Amino acid sequence: MSPETTEEARLARLVRAHDRWRGRSTFNLLPSENAVSPTARRYLSSDLAGRYTLPLHETFDGEAIDNSYAGTRYTDEIEALGNAAAARLFHGRYATTRPLSGHIAALSALAPLLPRGSKILAIPPGQGGYDGYAPGFIPAMLGCEVRPLPATGPGGRVDGEAAVDEIRRERPNVVVLGQSFFLFPYPLKAIAEAAHSIDALVLYDASHVLGLIAGGEFQDPLREGADVLFGSTHKSFPGPQGGLLITDREDLFDQIDPALVWRVFDNAHWNRIAALAQTLLEMERVGAEYARTIVANSRALARSVHDGGLPAVAEEEGFTCSHQILLDRAAVRARHSIGVGALARRWERQRLLTDLVGRLGTAEVSRLGLVPSDMPRLADLLIRAGPGRANVAAEVLAWRRQYPKLRFA
After folding, report:
1. Contact of 78 with 268, CB cutoff 8 Å
2. What percent of the chain stands above pLDDT 70?
């Protein structure tokens, strides 16, 4: 057997093992992941996976051309269908499904709209903000200054009055709202009113809460004053890994859309766009019930783990309004003499997957079909497997196998 054949066989075994492990043998509580529907997955492996399209409407060597490639009649229609579905679902007039991730969507919005030397106001990572907006990352790439938008309390909540004061004091060119630790909606109307009064833009990074917004359960950014909505399509939104961007403002879209190709990407991966279009259409059908279930599951799981001895933050505010629960890291360590990262490693050995910074997410287990009445049982497994060090892997596997199909698809 040749080395190539041996390695190909090994690769095949690894992929099959991953599919069994992650797809059928664990409960995934990572807030940054979700399950893609069978139809969307088929589109990811379609012939579109190797194809291009590049509409130009230009003259090349004396000839008028509308696309650099032949054979794109279906590709372009698929993209147009996805864009229209995104605009409908998120209550905007203009949308693009081309960004390859939420991070690329952020670049796609900020780069064309902000001249060098502009000032960005964003929630800092220390208060749960996305690291990409920290000084050394996207702002540095764009030659912009970034200043902190205050978020307080253990849940990193933005206070409307404090945010308005900071906007008036700092006078930024743009306010970026979005967090990696994202429990509660923003006082968006007050923030937008203050920003627009100084001709600043409001950009809403919905990467974590996009699925909740799609279901009408979190908030409605474009109708509440945001100028641009963008985000990842694979967290609470149950699509393929990627991004999208929506706005209600033609003037902004006319700056953003032409600046995408050859600046932040070239090939937008049209198999992904087809899978994303399918997920957008699915969410038009089931998004409201799906989002309600996620939030109800989050609150029930938070209450159950908290009462069972794993402290969660923001009890006085109902713990969460999103797909995320945030463990109180200091309280967990004080009570159990273990950090949340070490807990996550224990849980992983028992087929319970979380991240290593103390977040639990309910999007994927909601998509499998778990409901609030299941959350005490799930919390019991987490408590016994984590602080209790019990071996619950067989219990988890037996329970997980009761959900062979996705509920919301």
Report:
1. no
2. 99
* Structural domain contains residue 79: yes
Residues 123, 183: Cα–Cα separation, whole Å = 14
CA 228-207-80 angle, 5° bins: 60
What span, in angstroms and rounded, lies between the C-alpha atoms of 291 and 276?
18
Q: What is the pTM of this model?
A: 0.96
Q: How many domains does the chain have?
A: 1
**DSSP assignment of 89-106, as one string?**
HTT-SEEE---SSHHHHH
Q: What is the reported pLDDT for 350?
A: 98
| Phi, psi angles (nearest 5°) of residue 176 | -105, 120
- Taking the CB of residue 225, how many other CB atoms lie within 10 A of it? 19
Residue 178: domain span: 41-281
Our CA angle for 360, 362, 363, nearest 5°, is: 125
211 to 268, 280, 289, 292, 366: CA distances (angstroms) = 22, 10, 11, 10, 12
Query: In the predicted model, is pLDDT for residue 2 greater than 70?
Result: no
- Tell me how far the alpha carbon of residue 38 is from its chain's centroid: 20
E strand or H helix that includes residue 10: helix 3-24
Mean confidence (pLDDT) of the chain:
96
Assigned domain for 386 exists: no
Question: In angstroms, rounded to a whole number, what is the distance separating the alpha carbons of residues 328 and 390?
Answer: 22
Residue 408 and residue 39: Cα distance in Å, rounded? 12
CB 121 within 8 A of CB 176: yes
User: 252: Cβ–Cβ under 8 A, 6 or more apart, which residues?
Assistant: 113, 201, 227, 228
Task: Reduce the DSSP state of residue 246 to 3 states and report it.
Answer: strand
Q: Give the CATH number of the domain where residue 136 resides.
A: 3.40.640.10
Residue 64 lies inside a defined structural domain of this protein:
yes
